[in-house]
Amino acid sequence: MNDRFLRACRRQPVDRTPLWIMRQAGRYLPEYRALRKDVDFLTVCKTPELAVEVSLQPLRRFPLDASIIFSDILLPLEALGCRMTFNPGPKLAEPIRTRAQVDALDARPAAEVVPYVAEAVSMLRRELDGKTPVIGFCGAPFTLAAYLVQGEGKEGFGAVKTMLYREPGTLERLLETLTAAMTDYLRLQIGAGAQAVQIFDSWAGLLAPAQYEPFALRWVRAILAGVRDLGVPVIYFVNGAPHLLEAAATSGADVLGICWRTPIDVAAARVGPSLALQGNLDPHALFADPTEVTRLATDVLDRMTGRAGHIMNLGHGILPETPIPSVEALVAAVHAHTGRDAAVAAQS
Ligand code: 1CP
Predict the structure, then answer these.
(1) How far apart are CA 300 and CA 312, in angstroms?
(2) Is 191 in the pocket of ligand 1 (CB under 6 A)?
(3) pLDDT by residue (tens digit) across 100-144?
(4) Which among 122, 139, 217 has a CA at the least distance from the CA of 178?
(5) Residue 348, pLDDT above cutoff 50
(6) C-beta neighbour count of 165 within 10 angstroms
(7) Is 214 in the pocket of ligand 1 (CB under 6 A)?
(8) Half-sphere exposure of residue 200, counting CA atoms within 13 Å on the CB side?
(9) Is 264's C-beta closer than 6 angstroms to any atom of ligand 1?
């Protein structure tokens, strides 16, 4: 069993730094694009055989150390009665803007509304047979609220910030509903076999520090408290958040995902040694030539040498236009580091 990813989550010694790539299953892979020619995105997510096939595609090409289930952060919102399409980004049938709409959200068990996610997780776990651990995931409440209130992805997500200032009580009620739904959803995935889970807070960086605690962090803490008894490591990734690092480190997660904006050794010094760190090569760095990719990836690894608990990753999701040779160079750079952490640990 390849458990170096799970060991790094727990800050235990590893033979080399584990690597996986946020959004590793998806559009930069020609085999994903080929599969999507005939099947739309939601059908892939809702058909366990197809979701598992897409989750396995990156692992057939690259010796990565974890697999993530193919789905989307918005899908479990169907359990609240929300309807959406993807083209390619999400679009809600109806943005949630009023207290009445928030009160009308009807929280049904994820096991009833999105049973295909649990099926896909257990099928993926069986298929992998210990080759790598399986990561489940969900969106953080504030990030989900940003999409629900806006109705789609939009730079700055002005609608949710307007609600925050005009009707903070309505936003809090929405966040409370989302927190309960995501706790249930993560429990479903862990019950089905997910060996770690990641909470994506892609838009919490839009909040000022004084807003981050009441409108984002508080709810992430509640989700963590609600899955803690299940004993799997939790990764909390906050994007665009150099101004929130110290606060984010108090979420209770085992691992903090660091976006590409802060050098990872600087982030490590700011958050202290008590949690593992994941990241943080800039996704755009993969547009450099492979020699430069090797240099930049090695630089991230060097910054973490000797620190217990580092999971190599990008500092946000891999971009659809990313050249495959760059991903190969990233993998090779991590493998070339094999043994160095162990050697440093033995010396100290
Ligand atoms: O056309 C297609 O194939 C659909 C494109 C696509 C894909 C491949 C979407 C729509 N979602 C996904 C898969 C997905 N989304 C995964 C599984 C793949 C993997 O990680 O290997 C995951 C983990 C997500 C998570 C996700 N969706 C996030 C959090 C991570 C991040 O990038 O910050 C967010 C913000 C979304 C929303 C979303 N869904 C899809 C798109 C294009 C977007 C971004 C849209 C926007 O904000 O405008």
Answers:
(1) 8
(2) no
(3) 999 999 889 999 999 999 999 999 999 999 999 999 999 999 999
(4) 139
(5) no
(6) 9
(7) no
(8) 20
(9) no
Look-up of token digits 């809600």: 92
pLDDT at 337: 86
Range of the domain at 132: 4-347
In angstroms, rounded to a whole number, what is the distance separating the alpha carbons of residues 280 and 316? 8
Domain CATH number, residue 194: 3.20.20.210
Angle between helices 48-61 and 30-38 (to 10 degrees): 160
CA dist., res. 335 & res. 329, Å (int): 10
What three-state secondary structure class fits 310? strand
The predicted structure's pLDDT at residue 344? 52
345 neighbors 306 (Cβ within 8 angstroms): yes
Global pTM reads 0.96
Taking 80 as the threshold, does the pLDDT of residue 347 lie above it?
no
Residue-wise pLDDT for 53-111, tens only, equals 999 999 999 999 999 999 999 999 998 999 999 999 999 999 999 999 999 998 899 99
- Give how many domains the chain has, as a whole number: 1
Catalytic residue among 10, 27, 173, 261: 27
Condensed to tens digits (0 to 9), the pLDDT of residues 236-285 reads 999 999 999 999 999 999 999 999 999 999 999 999 999 999 999 999 99
Active site residue 236: no
d(CA 251, CA 235): 10
147 is catalytic: yes
